[in-house]
Specification:
Blueprint (H helix, E strand, L loop, with lengths): L10 E2 L2 E2 L2 H12 L20 H7 L3 H13 L3 H18 L2
Length: about 100
């Protein structure tokens, strides 16, 4: 195993992410509300899955829509849990 910094070590399908994808990932996390929804990858939610990120993502329609579309066609337990966590934040916010 080699040493590396945070996202440089994140792997998808056994291949290290390209610099272009990493650049897109950073653009997304810096401004998720203003990010180009066509470039959003639901797999990124697995990286930024703590409550502060999820609470913020729960306010962004395109994230929820893309996640729902993905889960309709894919069985992904981790994203399924994140989806319900997002819904819980929406419910908690709406019920106040």
């Amino acid at each position: 195993m080699h040493n590396c910094l945070a996202l440089n070590c994140w792997k998808k399908g056994g291949f290290t992410l390209s610099l272009n994808v990493e650049a897109e990932l950073f653009k997304f996390i810096i401004d998720p509300e203003g990010y180009d929804k066509d470039n959003f990858d639901v797999e990124w939610l697995k990286i930024f899955h703590n409550d502060s990120f999820i609470e913020n993502f729960s306010k962004i329609d395109y994230i929820i829509e893309k996640l729902e579309d993905y889960l309709i066609n894919n069985n992904d337990e981790e994203l399924n849990k994140l989806y319900f966590k997002i819904l819980k934040f929406n419910y908690d916010r709406d019920s106040v």
